[in-house]
Amino acid sequence: MLPPSVRILVCTEPQDMRRSFDKLALVTRELLGEDPQGGALYVFVGKRPTRVKVLWWDQNGYCLLYKRLHRALFVVPKRGEGQGPAVQIDGAALAQLLAGVEREEKQRRRLN
What we know:
The structure is a single chain. The longest helix has 10 residues, at 21-30. This protein has helices at 21-30, 91-99, 105-111; strands spanning 8-11, 41-45, 51-57, 62-68, 72-73, 86-89, 101-102. 23% of the residues lie in helices and 28% in strands. It has 112 residues and is α+β, with helices and mostly antiparallel strands. It has one domain (8-111).
């Protein structure tokens, strides 16, 4: 369980999931305009919505969670009018995002 004080930002632009710690930190800094070492969690969904990475700074280094779904899709929250390239969510919304949404059979065949 994450404390409510932890900011969670979801990048609404699909990212290349080959990127690792440093490249995602660069995206955080340049695209999102955030300090990747600022204590927030940064969520990135791949071009294929079956992959997600979560980046955060843990006192002396980056941590990276990588999850790939097989029969579901990650659903990125929509950004509102005039918002930047990220949406802030809470811990419950992050848990829901990481659980994914079951996809239809024809979507499975198209994405695989």
